[in-house]
Design goal:
This protein is an alpha/beta fold. The protein has 7 helices and 6 strands, in the order E-H-H-E-H-E-H-E-H-H-E-E-H. 35% of the residues are buried. The structure holds 3-methylbut-3-enyl trihydrogen diphosphate (2 copies) and magnesium ion (MG).
C-alpha cells in the first residue's frame, strides 16, 4: 500500500468515525530526514523529538485514550557511540520539557522497556515523571525506550517463572492473560492501529505480543519529522475503513 494524503478521498465525518483506543507509532526516518538536508543524523533526531511532542498533543486533543511511541529499541544500541550519545542527551533535554508540559496538558506518561540501563539522571527523570503521572488524568502516552518486544516477553516469563518457583503460581494458571499482566503494558488495551512512517514493512521488534490483531499502516512517502496531524488524521480515516475480523467472519 502506498498511501498519500492526496489519494485519501473523502474523510469520515468526525462524529461517525470509529477511533482506535490505542495507537502505536514507530517514529522512523529521522536519519533519512537529516541526510536529505545534508545535516548530521543528530539533527534529524532533534526534529523527530520536536514532532513527537506535537503529535502526542494532537492525539490527546482528539480523544485518543492510549498512544505508544517507539523512541529507542533494544537494537538501537548497535548504532555508533556518537549517535547513541546524542540521543541520550536529547532524551534528557526533551523529556524534561515535554514532561513538564504534558503534565499541564493532561497527558499521562508511562515508559515501556528496561529503563534500568540509563544514566542515573535520566532514570531519575523517568521516575519523577511516572510518579507525577499517577496523579494525572488524560491520555496515556507510553514512551518505549530501550524497548524490544522479545525482551519484554522474556522479562514477563521470568517473572512468571519466579512465582512458580516460589510456589505462588501453578504452571496450569499461566495463560495469555497472566502473561499480558506482566508486560510493560499491563492493564492497557492492545494497540488497534500501528503507524510506521518512512516505508519499512517490518515490526522492528515493536509490541510483538500486543500487536497480534493490530491494523498496520505503513506510510512510504513521509519521514517521521515531517509527519503532521493531517497524516495522523489520514491514518485514522484509513483505520475506520478497515474490516477487523479477529479470526471470525
Ligand atoms: C528513528 O529514526 C529514530 C530511532 C531509531 C532512534 P532512524 O534514526 O531510524 O532514521 P532512519 O531510519 O535512519 O532514517
Ligand atoms: C525502529 O526503527 C525503532 C525506532 C523507531 C525507535 P529502526 O530504524 O531501528 O528499525 P530498523 O533497523 O530499520 O528495522
Ligand atoms: Mg530507522
Amino acid at each position: 500500500m502506498k498511501p498519500s494524503i492526496e489519494s485519501a478521498g473523502d474523510s469520515f465525518p468526525r462524529e461517525e468515525r470509529v477511533l482506535p483506543r490505542h495507537v502505536g507509532i514507530i517514529m522512523d526516518g529521522n536519519g533519512r530526514w537529516a541526510k536529505q538536508r545534508g545535516l548530521p543524523r543528530s539533527l534529524g533526531h532533534r526534529a523527530g523529538a520536536i514532532n513527537f511532542k506535537k503529535i502526542a498533543r494532537y492525539g490527546s486533543s482528539i480523544g485518543l485514550e492510549y498512544m505508544t511511541v517507539y523512541a529507542f529499541s533494544t537494537e538501537n544500541w548497535k548504532r555508533p557511540e556518537e549517535e547513541v550519545g546524542a540521543l541520550m542527551v536529547l532524551f534528557k533535554q526533551y523529556l524534561k520539557d515535554a514532561l513538564r508540559d504534558f503534565l499541564k496538558e493532561r497527558i499521562k506518561i508511562h515508559f515501556l522497556g528496561d529503563t534500568s540501563v540509563f544514566s542515573p539522571d535520566l532514570r531519575e527523570l523517568i521516575q519523577e515523571t511516572e510518579e507525577a503521572a499517577k496523579q494525572q488524568e488524560g491520555m496515556i502516552l507510553n514512551i518505549a525506550m530501550n524497548y524490544g518486544g522479545r525482551s519484554e516477553i522474556v522479562h514477563a516469563v521470568r517473572q512468571l517463572a519466579r512465582q512458580v518457583q516460589e510456589g505462588s503460581l501453578s504452571p496450569r494458571d499461566i495463560d495469555e492473560e497472566a502473561l499480558s499482566s506482566h508486560l510493560y503494558t499491563a492493564g492497557q488495551p492492545d494497540p488497534d492501529l500501528i503507524i510506521r512512517p518512512s516505508g519499512e514493512y517490518r515490526t522492528s521488534n515493536f509490541m510483538l505480543w500486543q500487536a497480534a490483531y493490530a491494523e498496520y499502516i505503513i506510510m512510504e512517502d513521509i519521514l517521521w519529522p515531517d509527519f503532521t496531524p493531517e497524516h495522523l488524521e489520514w491514518a485514522l480515516d484509513e483505520y475506520a475503513r478497515r474490516n477487523r475480523r479477529f479470526g471470525g467472519i
